[in-house]
Amino acid sequence: MTLYNKDYEIVMGLEIHAQLKTKTKLFSTSIANFGAEPNTQANAVDLAMPGMLPVLNTEAVTSAIKFGLAINAEIAPVSVFSRKNYFYPDLPKGYQISQFDLPTVGKGVLDVTLEDGSTKTIRIERAHLEEDAGKSVHDLGSNSVSHVDLNRAGVPLLEIVSFPDFRTPEEVAAYVKKLRAIVQYIDICDGDMSQGSMRCDVNVSVRKKGEHKLGTRREIKNVNSIKNIIKAITYEANHQVDIIENGGEVQQETILWDPDAGVTRSMRSKEDAHDYRYFPDPDILPLRISDERIEAIKATMPELPEQKKARLMADYELSAYDAEVITSSKETADFYEEVLEAGKDAKLCANWLIVELFAILNKQDLELHETPVSAKQLGELVGLIVDKTISGKIAKTVFEEMVATSKDPKVIVEEKGLVQITDTSAIEPIIDEVIASDLGQANAEKFRNGADRILGWFVGQVMQKTQGKANPAMVNEILKEKLK
Amino acid sequence: MNDILKLTITELIEKLKTRELRSVDVTKAALERIKERNDSINAYITICEETALKQAEISDQKLDDGEAGMLEGVPLGIKDLFCTKGIKTTAASKMLADFIPPYESTVTQNLLDEGAIFLGKLNMDQFAMGGSGETSAFGDTINPIKEEEKLTAGGSSSGSAAALADFQCFGATGSDTGGSVRQPASFTNTVGFRPTYGRCSRFGMVSFASSLDQAGFMARSVEDTALMFRAASGFDEKDSTSADVAVEAYDEIINDLEVKGLKIGLPKEYFVDGVDQKVKDVINAKVEQFKAAGAEIVEISLPHTKYAVPTYYIVAPAEAAANLSRYDGMRYGLRVEGENLSDTYAKSRSAGFGWEVKRRIMVGNYVLSSGYYDAYYSKAQKVRSLLSLDFEKAFEQVDVIFAPTTPELPFELGGKIDDPIAMYLCDIFTVSSALAGIPCISVPAGFTPEGLPVGLQILGKAFDDAKVLQAAKKAEDMNK
Q1: Separation CA A362–CA A357 (nearest Å)
Q2: Is residue B14 part of a domain?
Q3: Do A128 and A323 contact (CB within 8 A), yes or no?
Q4: Are the beta carbons of B122 and B360 closer than 8 angstroms?
Q5: I need a labelling partner for A373 at 20 to 30 A (CA). Which of A320, B41, B83, B142 fits?
Q6: Is B237 in contact with A49 (Cβ distance < 8 A)?
Q7: What is the rounded CA–CA span in Å between residue B480 and residue B478?
Q8: Which residue of A has its CA nearest to B376?
Q9: How far is CA B39 from CA A133, B4, B42, B166, in A?
Q10: Is the separation of the CB atoms in B413 and B132 below 8 Å?
Q11: Which residues in chain A land under pLDDT 70?
């Protein structure tokens, strides 16, 4: 449980910065990739040289519109870029261009599925386009210099602001996962939190249950994983309850989560808050988005997680749970589709992915992209079951071998001679032998007298003699015939 | 002085084409004149002798090869606010005293592409903030008309105006944020044209106030400004506010206007008490000439004129405050090392900016600050719309508007510099049109009995640049 003190509840709102996967920066023609040598992807516009002017990247606008469509939001026919003024060496212009009172994406909603299977609707207040700042690296050594890398300066961000609709850290986690899935599905952001391409700020406040007034909030900046989000919220909420219970007052602050120490630390108080002196950027005309443009983008929208889930349930008769798990990230969904291509049987594929493969990944603490068994291999394994080359039981043995060696299932089956015996002429003599044995004759007698369950003993004997390779269904059938 | 320096651009082009003159010789003559006069007039911050002569040689070759551009071989002066690749661009500030841009502004590039030769970079008010040339970090510019009286050549395009009036160039670029080409033109008996906002790219012009900044063109004849304008203007994808509207052959259609039947509006707010009577006399005489030639004179009203100066002095400083934030001593420009980051910022900016720039940054930040935004910036934007509306209504009635360019005559250097309000009020007739973004020009209208020049201002509808230039041409013809 999250709060030790059950008289309180937590209220949270999220601001998520999604770095857009555009080719170039939001207002310049510099390449917007990660990982280049410092200051090699910054041109005169990014450096804010005299007389340089911003030119809006239409690809970024398209990304914002896509996101708006994905959350059923209103797309503003006119939105405005403003200047947010403050001085810092990684902010070359001395202002950040961001959308202030007229964002491109207005109110929308996102349904998230919680662990107990219930659904909660989270309202999104807005999503706006803005440029990122550069990166400051402070060398705290003896000469204490600071370095600035402007490669990131001007990279487009979509800041997605929710209403304060969250009451538990689990809801927050579910929302972040869902949002990550959406931006990946519509292919506007890679959603990688550890690389900082999705950054999360959480506004946390607590109040006595039954209260309507919101408590004073503190904003946790830049938490870089879902696990840390849960930890940070849990720590911070309990900390706020402690303050109140001890007769204190929560002070509005911006705080940082220290994952090593497991505590939140103050970054700046309300008194240090800047007056950003926002005003419309006169270098950029108001952004006008026509209905035609929205319709054209709508026509190119890929399947969203919700839609995919519904399709998997309708077309393949997957359970809601299986469909939810499979569609929870684009990576999983794509993986599943690839398994299905070779595996054919949708339900069996879902089972092998969710039950068998996920168990291994969990056990070995691996992410899906680190899996020892590729989607194609898993699909082939299911395919071998479907075409009766191996039985489900043998498949588990093969799978263990695949996990250990990353070999293809067919190779393993061949090497170990695990091909299922489906030839009646091969099975019949073995059955005859079992029935002819002493015990076999006695048990056959019992079976004819109505002891149906004795059939299992015969099957077991046959399987033993074939090292489990005989097709169980055929064994059953032939046995029934011969024992008449 | 070599008499060829007195030629207009169009006359010079004729002589270059017929080989009566060679660009190298003309350029040499201009450079000599500059060197001889720069100590007394101080029109140039940087003289580009070597590159200018090299350009001239190339131009002569092109003229020989029949590949001449529109301005092939014509020596121009460039206001030191246009970034010129490899040539120091200071904006007349200590902040950028040693700044050499690695890129060319679109306007100057367009001029270069048409064969223009750059003699040097012209003095100006620092960051284009000022109306007398006195805020330059490189000294005052002297008005060559009555040189001994030490009058201002106006501002901020002080060097452009003075260089033209003193025959130190054939044409010059200027920039006009609130009157910075028109008022200096009026003070030096030259022509100063501010095109419709968006006609010329602002790419590579050191920004003062983005929604107002517009490249301007100055010359000793209207046709010359029209030609320079034609060569320099056009849509530029590097400037989001530049207009995708076709460029006309302004110089070729310069005479295509009938004065007979031309409806000229005289805004009563521009002929009030407080306007120097001598200025009014010259303007009225010019209006009479048009009337005699068959023009219809209509009294009109631009009722929000009285709010134009306060509106301008809120909008322009607000934009300037943000535009000048980039000069922080971190990447280029002046840096004065301090104890820590914020001290370095403070020391660099204190040393790099002059007092007028600092004043406007402070005003700008004040009007944008929380709690004052609505009262100042937001209200000013509303008034700005009303000012535009005034013009729109007026142009339903008339073709062009005539007015004085400034309410007063060229004043003595030092005369107003300690009284910013008095200085700002001189902009009364030039800021409304800048806020509205409409085309306007100051054209010589005559002299006072003491021999001081008076400029007639002509204003037109947005993108009616051609008509403004044509009407100005008529006014100029009537001077003869």
Answers
A1: 9
A2: yes
A3: no
A4: no
A5: A320
A6: no
A7: 5
A8: A279
A9: 46, 22, 6, 13
A10: yes
A11: 1, 142, 270-272
**Per-residue pLDDT at A142:** 67
Tens-digit pLDDT profile for residues B75-105: 999 999 999 999 999 999 999 999 999 999 9
Question: Looking at CA atoms only, how far is residue B226 from chain A in angstroms?
Answer: 24
Q: Which token pair is A456?
A: 């299992």
- Torsion sign over Cα B92, B94, B95, B97: positive
Task: Confirm whether B433 is domain-assigned.
Answer: no
Active site residue B156: yes
Contact B411, B159 (CB under 8 A): no
Contact check, Cβ <8 Å, A51/B330: no
In the structure encoding, which two tokens stand for residue A208, read together? 């006595």
3-state helix, strand and coil shares in percent for chain B, rounded to the nearest 5: 45, 15, 45
Give every CB contact of residue B205 below 8 A, 6+ residues apart in sequence. Answer: A51, B81, B82, B83, B105, B107, B175, B213, B215
**What's the DSSP call for residue B14?**
H
Chain A residues within an 8 Å CB radius of B318: 279
Nearest to A427 by CA among A476, A384, A391: A476
Q: What does pLDDT average to over chain B?
A: 97
The Cα A381–Cα B85 span in angstroms is 66
Return all residues near B132 (Cβ < 8 A) that are at least 6 apart.
B125, B140, B152, B154, B155, B158, B411, B413, B416, B417, B423
CATH number of the domain at B200, please: 3.90.1300.10
User: What per-residue confidence (pLDDT) applies to A272?
Assistant: 67
What is the DSSP annotation of B104-120? --HHHHHHHHTT-EEEE
Is B188 within a domain?
yes
**A81 chain-B contacts, CB cut-off 8 A:** none
| Per-residue tokens: A300 | 């190119």
In the Cβ-directed half-sphere of B455, how many Cα atoms lie within 13 Å? 35
- In this complex, the residue of A52, A94, A282 whose CB is nearest that of residue B325 is A94
Q: Is the pTM of this model over 0.80?
A: yes
Instruction: Give the angle B186-B174-B363 at the CA atoms, nearest 5°.
Output: 90
Q: Which residue has the tokens 């106030």?
A: B209
| Contacts of A120 by beta carbon, 8 Å cutoff, 6+ apart | A111, A112, A114, A165, A171, A174
pLDDT per position as a tens digit, B115-169: 999 999 999 999 999 999 999 999 999 999 999 999 999 999 999 999 999 999 9
Residue range(s) defining the domain that contains residue B85: 3-232
* Measured distance CA(A343)–CA(A74) in Å, rounded: 41
- d(C-alpha B366, C-alpha B360), whole Å: 10
Structural domain count of chain B: 1
CA distance A48 to A52: 6
The owner of tokens 């002066």 is B77
Structural domain contains residue B357: no
- Which of B156, B160, B186, B433 is catalytic? The answer is B156
Evaluate the omega torsion of the peptide bond into residue B156 and state whether it is cis, within 30 degrees of 0: yes
In the chain, the amino acid numbered B261 is G
Q: Taking CB atoms and an 8 Å cutoff, what residues of chain A touch B205? A: 51
The set of residues, in sequence order, having a beta carbon less than 8 Å from that of B452 and lying 6+ positions away, is B145, B146, B278, B409, B410
What would the two tokens of residue A419 be? 């091909």
Told to judge if B79 belongs to the known catalytic residues of this protein, a careful annotator would answer: yes
**Contact predicate B111/B71, CB 8 Å:** yes
* Closest to B464 in 3D by CA, of B407, B400, B418, B406: B400
